[in-house]
Design a protein that fits this description.
It is built from five helices and 14 strands. The chain is α+β, with helices and mostly antiparallel strands and about 240 residues long. The protein has two domains: about 70 residues, Gyrase A, domain 2 (2-Layer Sandwich), CATH 3.30.1360; about 150 residues, Cyclophilin-like (Cyclophilin), CATH 2.40.100.10. Strand 9 and strand 10 form a beta hairpin.
Amino acid sequence: MEAKILPAGETCLFVDFGEVIDLAVNGRVQSLARALDENPFRGMRELVPTYRSLSIYFDPLTVDLPALRERLESELAKPFAAERAGGREVRVPVLFGGESGPDLGEVAAHTGLTEKEVVKRYCDSPLYCYMNGFTPGFPYLGGMDPALTTPRLKTPRELIPANSVAIGGAQAGAYSIASPGGWRIIGRVPYDLYDPRRDPAVAITSGLWVKFYPVTAARYAEIQEQIKSGEYRIEYAEREASA
């Protein structure tokens, strides 16, 4: 399906890439967002990528709208090669179970797996951040092992601690700030997934691959101390593309 450039009020253009959710479609979203971010047009305010679209916000008093449309058409006409499994990856430590993951046992019971198997399958899943939404920095992650699919809570919790790692249906995700929510909480990250004082403020951004890995309570506490002293760095790396 060809991308459509649609108006969304006086301050936004909406580029729609189709009705499906998959890596190729999201790759086109990310490619256009990168092109605009690396070479912004006059009046550009914000880019908001989603699973299958890109919202482009601008100052209507300074933008040259015909020129912007021409620029978008030019970018969309360029050949696009899906990176498949390549790209940037963030490795994220997680303390699973216990008070940090109160729903791990229920996920295990629902799926017929042991808690260790749930953690292993979750960490082995090739997770990809399609978009951020709901709250600042909340990552919607596709690619979770289908065997882990677990329905959301019938009654959402009034407050979920920040940095909680979760399962919601067939998706993985993480609560970047404390908020209400109905996803199943299975673990917690020792650092803030959203910190406006940090660069980048959002640890897991759209277009990133995500590799969760388990840590002990002792290592969790150690990382928190390293954060306080300024020693800890979020683990970003290039991910090798599959054949």
